Amino acid sequence: xxxxxxxxxxxxxxVSAVTVYSTVTTAVSTAAAAxxxxxxxxxxxxxxxxxxxxGLNTQFTLQLQNSVPSNNLSLxxxxxxxxxxxxxxxxxxxLGSNSTTLQVAFxxxxxxxxxxxxxxxxxxxxxxxxxxxxxxxxxDGKILEKxxxxxxxxTQTPPLIYTPDLIYMMGNVSALVNVHWFxxxxxxxxxxxxxxxxxxxxxxxxxxxxxxxxxxxEPDLYQRHEHFTTYGPxxxxxxxxxxxxxxxxANLPGTNLLVGPNIASADWTAEEVWNxxxxxxxxxxxxxxxxxxxxxxxCAAQFNTGAAVVDPQTxxxxxxxxxxxxxxxxxxxxFLNSSSFAIANGKRLMMMETNTGSCGGFAGISDxxxxxxxxxDYAFQMAFNNFAGGMIHVGGQSVFYNPFTPxxxxxxxxxxxxxxxxxxxxxxxAESIGPSNITxxxxxxxxxxxxxxxxxxxxxxxxxxRVGIINYVxxxxxxxxxxVQIAIxxxxxxxxxxxxxxxxxx
Length: 506
What we know:
With 506 residues, the protein is of the alpha/beta class. It has 14 helices and 23 strands. It has helices at 91-94, 104-117, 164-176, 192-206, 233-249, 270-274, 278-281, 299-303, 312-315, 328-332, 336-344, 369-384, 421-433, 446-449; strands at residues 2-9, 18-21, 59-64, 82-87, 96-98, 101-102, 120-125, 132-134, 144-146, 160-162, 179-185, 210-215, 258-263, 286-292, 349-354, 387-394, 404-405, 418-419, 440-443, 455-460, 463-471, 483-488, 503-505. An 8-stranded parallel barrel has the order 4-7-11-12-13-14-15-16, surrounded by 7 helices. Strand 5 and strand 6 (101-102) form a beta hairpin. Mean pLDDT is 90; it is low at 1-5 and 7-31.
């Protein structure tokens, strides 16, 4: 399994050169995996990759054109397209311990992305935003405290209290690296004062770095998780409107920064929310429409829910093809109508939270190189289909899917951060789309639409400037390495030949 090439053509072909990026797959020992009892974030499990597909065509041509009509391309996208969703309960581990003690490794990871894309988008929220209360101070002086004994099923979500210093910490991160934020406010506590205080403080501290205020998290699961006896799309419609009224009554600015409906796309469809009149009623209040989704879940194994346990080895092939069961292509099919609906209403659709599997992902999948390829293809599919962006979720030590994991607090003086596969998905996405903010994508349907060799072209001002090619196949013999010719223009498409004459490999 290898990312064979990611080709970058110089903008407007002022210079005749292509940069090709490649990686080499290495094997990892599985000796201790079966007896491992440590944190999930460091689980050494390695799964067996799928067999080499029969009859794989490894030689093909990508024929590109200049001056491609914009209706054949995505809308203009930003290099910050693939960002991160940080669970609110672990913000003090990931960003820093307070506003004056920031995590240097985190800043470096974000700066690495911002160097390529111009900025990074981060959402702070998740299940733990729903019972998080803003307080002036805590008894131990920390910026965040968890009530672990009050955790609720199925994801063992602890109630939180946090101080204004958490928001100031976010502001100080943005003062050093160009990070923009979504902030979640709670909907599972009857505390309008807390919601308004979080909203007001976020605006005052983050200023133009605040992208939006997320109103509730996964409301389509409120009833299933027994937060309410009954709760449907019209209930959320009403609650959202009540908060708009609360903000207006309190004379708070930013009523145009709200984000919803943030459904898990589990017990409601997005269309059921749109059918309430949600978008037409609150159009002036909505910064983005948003959904959350995972291709599958590991809840049965992680939290003993009684449901059937997903076997990672059986599921693994579903992540390792362009249109597999758990691929980005498959995930977004149910949202294509909503993406178009958002645009028709002057909005964009955001994938506010996603990863390889809810309830922490899977050992051997979420932390494997294949997840990096999966994440790249997923991001490109979302961008090609006009999502506004996607957020890879970040949890604590107890999950497999983190794009980056700080060491346990009591080991931070001698252990280092661990970088996971999906961070590299964000890195490749940032460099592929770039910082111009005018890049448009095209899924090339490469190699006659072969599911193991997807390819994308990246256009600026109607002309191709970069090409990305993914090879999902693991083949240590090298027989499945790809040989791809890239042609730009030429007599076959009625254009002059503008194929670059040289290639630079990184």
